[in-house]
Structures are given as structure tokens and as C-alpha cells.
Amino acid sequence: MYIQPKPGTDGALALAIAKVLIDNQQYDNDFVEKYVSGFEEFAESLKKYSVRELAAITDVDEILIHELTALIANTKPMTIIPGYGMQRFTNGGQTIRCILALSVITGNIGKKGACWHYANLQSYVFDSVKEPMSYYPPEKPDGIFRREISMAKLGEDMLNIKDPELKMIWVERGNPIAQNPDTNTVLKAFRKLEFRVVVDQFLTDSAMEADVVLPAKNMFEQSDIIGSYWNPYVQYKPKVVEPAGDVKPETEIYYYLAKELGFSEEEIEKHLPKPNNDAIEEFLKEKVKQFSELDYEKLKEGPMLAASHEEIAFADMKFNTPSGKIELYSERAKEKWDINPLPAYVPPVEDGKTTKFPLHFLSPNTKNRIHSQFNNLNVIKLFGADPFVEIHPTEAQKRGIINDEMVKVYNDNGYFKLKARFNSGIKKNCVAISNGWWIQQGGSTNFLSKGRETDIGHGTAFHDIMVEIEKI
Length: 472
What we know:
Elements: H1 10-23, H2 29-35, E1 36-37, H3 39-45, H4 51-58, H5 62-74, E2 79-80, H6 92-105, E3 115-116, H7 127-130, H8 154-160, E4 168-172, H9 176-179, H10 183-192, E5 195-200, H11 205-208, E6 212-215, E7 224-226, E8 233-237, H12 250-260, H13 265-271, H14 277-288, H15 296-301, E9 304-305, E10 326-327, H16 331-337, E11 359-362, H17 378-381, E12 388-391, H18 393-398, E13 406-410, E14 415-422, E15 430-432, E16 466-471
Parallel strand pairs: 1-10, 2-3, 4-5, 5-6, 11-15, 12-14
Antiparallel strand pairs: 7-8, 8-9, 11-16, 12-15, 13-14, 13-16
Helix pairs in contact: 1-4, 1-5, 1-6, 8-10
């Protein structure tokens, strides 16, 4: 089945399915009784809706909802693989909770072939080791401050920080000018600073705004130990080639910079390896020793299962919650994020009811690059060197737009000039431009986006945007 809900309403669609499952007694009662907390409250909360009302919210036919529900109820085991797009709305956290509830009430957790495959963070065992707060200098009365800045509101927060104001920025492993929302405000914040340093392999949009660009190593030029988004294994990544010219790994840059800043040898070597291959290997080896399930020499032979985790997530049916169960009703979520403790549908901030900007704007990923990475490579340009906006022919016809002609996509935040490309597969009332285009290549989708956070997790609501499009 291929169903296209109205952008930002996936949570309402999930609740409609949950309601049918519960009303028809098609949920896994044994699993719910053993491993789920808050089911009764969740079921009660759905009584205020009719399937028809939820179908109207999502713009999905009731018949399709019932057909999809039947598939979910009768498929054992069942895996749900939610895309990343639906989290990029102001209601993204609750949307994910609503969809996850379907896996929970049907008992598709902790079993082979039955799972919720969103991202696998089991292999990220080193987060506590590399947590910046563990090695930042302590706050002191003589002027050492710690500040937290929202990635969603990067430009706004940079401009608003006072006492003291920001004077400089150091950017590495990122391209915030192109990839953070509200590009115009981010540019304003960057240009207000007295000093800008960017560490990168390429002259990205962010590097073009820097006073100093330090050439960064690539992934083949320094040994490391890494996890994975998609599996629970930790892997050793060996160095295979020397950096070119004067290129230095970030750790080596830090090492020499710390010396120039007057840090003691003891303090430097506590957190950074000396700038040679043997020291880096020894540094990694010492970090691995903190995890009894991992062995450095065995890692060199092949991937190892991350510490304290099973190959099938939650196969032991142990859940890190106050109740020890899967919590559909979560006081922790309510207290931490000020949201409904139950999975619930909340309309996105921009729900399409405005007439000034009637089109939902989506900026999905493309298989040709990872966000703004690789977009400068000639081999990637063979798949399309210029940005384009996808629009349904019916929407284009309303505006007198011809396929492949230049148009302007705009809202109160900014605009993007590029070619229109007809796509009968895109939902009407929507337009889409893949994210990752550089300003140097014609523009960025984030000239149109706004600095808004999601309801859970301090994510960025890249897709909670409405626009209009006109021919030039």
C-alpha cells in the first residue's frame, strides 16, 4: 500500500489505526498485560475520536485506514521502519510516540523480525567518554563560561547571547550556514562575530564565511572506533593513508592549540593523544578498557556486539523506565518535555490553513548525498548539478508554471530561485526540494526554514514550513 497523509499528520493516522485495533480486540493482550504500562489510559484517550475525524485530519480515506490496520493486525512478526521526515515537525516527538504505540500494542517488540527500526544507538557506548562537559574547564569567576545553544535556533541564540556576547566560533564536522535552519539569521550571526574558524576538507558555505580555514583529515587518515546507526556493533576503523601535505587530524590541531594556550602537559595528555600513530592507538586502547565486553585486539579482527546489549533489541524484555515496562503513559516525558504523557496528536505549528502560503514545503534527503556532503563532487553532479523543486502538475497549472522553467519558492523567511520539475507522485498542496544544496550552487532550502524546535529532543522542525511558488 502507498498512502500519503497530509504532512505533519502521521500521528493522527497512527491513532486511527490504534483505535481500530483496540476497538476490534486485535491487539496483543498477553504482551500488553506483561510488558506495557498505561494501555488503559491510552485506550481511553482514543474514545474521543472517531476514525472519520482522524481520517479527515490526515486526508486519508477511511477505507485505506481499515485496510492498513488489517495488514498490521494480521502480519506476524511486523516491523515498522519510520522515515526521518516525520520527526522534523514541531509535533515530531509525539508523532513518533503514536506510531511506536502500534508496535507496542501488537506485541512487535523484542522478537526476531518484529521491531521498531528507527535508529540503532546501542553501539554508541562511548557517549559518556566523549561527552564534552566531562573535559570542559570548570566555570570560574574569572571568565570561563559554559553556554548551551539550540541547534534549531542557532542564529537566533548566537545573536541573543549577552554578558558576554559571542566573539568567535569554531566549526568542525558541520556546515551550519547551509544545514541549520533560518540561513539568513545564521549568516547575520556569523558575520557579527570577530573571528571565525572552520575545520573542513572543502570550501563549504560555512568555510567561505571563515577568517581561517584549517584543512581537516578524512576518515581514512586516522584510526578510530565507531558505532553505527543501523546495527548494535562497535567497529575498529584503521588508518590506511597519511594525510596530505600539512593536513592534521582534529585531535592533533587541539593538541598543538592547547599547548599554545598554555595548558599543562598533564591536562593535555589526559584528554588528547600525542600527535603520532602509536599514541592514538594507545589512546583508543585505554578508552576501550572501560568496557568489559569489548577487547581492542578483537575489534581489530572484526566488529563486536556493543557492551551489555543483545543482537535483538529488548529481547530480554527489560526496559529502562520507572515501571520497568514500556510506558505508553509516561510521567517522565510529561515532566521533561511538558507534553501529554500519552501518545497524542498535536497539530503542527504551520498546519496549512493559511492562504498566504498554501503549500507544504518538504526538504527530504536524497540518495546522492548525505545532507550537504558530497554535493561538490563531480561524480555526484552527474546525477544533477542544479537544484530543482518538485511540484504536482495540477499545482503548477494553477500558477501558470511550465515544467523545467525557473520559479521562485518563498515565504516570509526567505526565498530560493530554481527550476520547477513536475512530479505526479508528490501530494497536491506540497512542494519538495532535497536538502543539502550549497548557496554557491544556487541556494539552500534553509533560506525558507525557521528556527523552531520539535516537541521532544530539541530537534529541528525543518518540515514545519509553508511556502508559495511563482514563475519568474
